[in-house]
Amino acid sequence: MEVSGRSSFKPHIVEEWVGKVYTILCVFVLVVTIAAMVYFVASRGLSTFITNGVSLAGLLSGLKWDPDGDPALFGALPFIFGSFATSLLAAAIAAPLGCCAAVFMTQILPGVGKKFMQPVIELLAGIPSVVFGFVGLSIVVPVLRAVFPGQGIGIAAGAIVLSIMILPTITTIAADALASLPFGLREGSFALGATRWQTIWRIVIPTALPSLLTGVVLGMSRAFGEALAVQMVIGNAPHIPRSLFESASTLTSVITLDMGNTIMGSAHNNALWSLALILLLMTFVFVFVVRMLERRSVR
Amino acid sequence: MKKTLLLIAAIVLAVGLAACGSKTNNSGTTGGSTSTNTQNGGGDSTAGGGSAADSGTKLSGSILAAGSTALQPLAEQVSKEFMAEPDYSGITVQVQGGGSGTGLTQVAGGQVQIGNSDIFAEEKFKDADADQAKALVDHTVAVVAMATVVNKDVTVDNLTKQQLVDIFTGKVTNWKDVGGPDEKITLVNRPSSSGTRATYEKFALGTKSEDIPGSIQEDASGTVKKLVSETKGAIGYLALSYLDDSVKTVKYEGVDPTEDNVITGKYPVWAYEHMYTKGEPAPEVKAFLDYMMSDKIQNGDVVQLGYIPVTKMQVKRDAAGSVSK
Fold first, then answer.
1. If we measure between CA atoms, which residue out of A233, A250, A239, A214 comes closest to residue A91?
2. Each residue of A73-92: pLDDT tens digit?
């Protein structure tokens, strides 16, 4: 870079400044984007309560969702229940699978794990969610329908599809955590005469537990926000289901089904934004939990 | 020290943003955002050149159409043929989906020139928004009929209106009560905001259907067909263009859902596909709408894609739903 005139503007000083300004600009854009999105969702979502006069308690605890009815009813509890049920169940399925895969990849057969398993699992993360949804609809639902009573669609189908989707998140974070453990930890354990399994179970996993939990929470947060794949297999009836194999809804499936069909600014549309706001707040909670876990793991 | 500085900066930013945000919000609700103005301006200028167009000048401009996914395949195919015509090569047409509500909102707000919708704007813009429908001009371009479909194991051939109402409100939950096998009925419905569902409720049922527990709601016709064909005892409804051997069609009050029966007005479960413009269309938009109504498209693409030509209809219907010859 050529600088004419004053001698104080040496090339490396200019470089320093350009770098600084560029970095600050990027941070600024990022902060503005995030703030704008939070503001937009909040302003739309809150107008349900302010303009349309829906009570917050009614939205959070109401069991009947009938936004086009007379009177319109906005009870979102079935969706909140559905979202938590599917993502918790998905995490319950995926957490043992992911953590065991990570243990295998880093502790038992690191060679095969690094060369073969890790790329395969990471490949899962790149598959579009509509593909997961279609596979769920074509394979998981018919199998569940044949084995269990009911229509096959429902929370169980949603949770199975989601558990496969969040597997890469959990496995990758768990594998990183296990691989970054201090070298002497296992050697010390072996030196005391512990077997490999004793070392893994008593030393390695407890030490890495906060990081493993971070992976599980991040996976859950992805499951909570996933829309398309769940919408295709869960059935979307606005009721709390009586079994795992009966049609249910999640917050995201209702939003994706109805958003395009409603008029912007109408009560129905605003109520959907309120659901989006609940999702956003839940994401904050998940991030907060991850932060707490990280703080624990540092100590 | 640095942390507090950052925090202050963030707060200042957030407040500043909130102010900007509310500004754009206001202009959005009055429907007069800057983009609208420029677009209207553009429309006017071409309108001024409209007389010039008659005397041989080529039309040019870009048209954005958005909305109903039911109309999207037709609009997309026609737009390609339209742009391939030498007379209209100066016009670009873009078609997007997004649902009837999106189409109507965006055309009323001026973000798009054509808003595609399955149902009349008067039916969507209700109560406080009713004024917005008045500014829109309706262009019906095709007719879509819907048939009641059931899983193949259901032996019922014909359902009366009352039987359908009982089924879709959850009063009847077993096929044996309407003359079929002893089997649980599974409803495959559309979401409550869907235009297809509104049409079916209005003209087949005459009443709202219930979202009963255990029912399934899907918005994509392909998914509806798949679920009806695979789930025992399932019932749903599909546009005629989606029918094939995988599902069984049921007569409505003894009338087969065929194109002829829709044209003569015997079969009542059908709806117009609308293309709304805000005010009278600009010349290039009008050229596209005229092209849509030409014999070539109405008897070609429209029929080929499973819609019914609006020009063939022997009956007419208004927004209130009353039918006239």
1. A214
2. 899 999 999 999 999 999 99
Max CA separation in chain B (angstroms): 81
Which of B186, B217, B219 to substitute to test the interface with A, most A CBs within 10 Å? B217
**What are A11-53's pLDDT values in tens digits?**
888 999 999 999 999 999 999 999 999 999 999 999 989 888 8
DSSP B14-70: HHHHHHHHHHHHHHHHTT--HHHHHHHHHHHHHHHTHHHHHTTPPP-EEEEEEE-TT
The one-letter code for the residue type at A176 is: D
At A57-68, the pLDDT tens digits run 888 888 888 887
8 Å CB contact of A260 and B216: no
Residue B216: alpha-carbon gap to chain centroid? 21
Please tell me the pTM assigned to this model. 0.81
Mutate to test the interface with A, among B193, B209, B215, B221 (most CBs of A within 10 A): B193
Q: Give the distance from residue A165's alpha carbon to the nearest chain B alpha carbon, in angstroms.
A: 21
Q: Strand locations in A63-209, DSSP E?
A: 65-66, 73-74
Collect all residues of chain A within an 8 Å Cβ-Cβ radius of residue B122: none
Chain A residues within 8 A of B227 when measuring between CB atoms: 153
> Rounded to a whole number, what is the distance in angstroms from the first to the last CA of chain B?
79
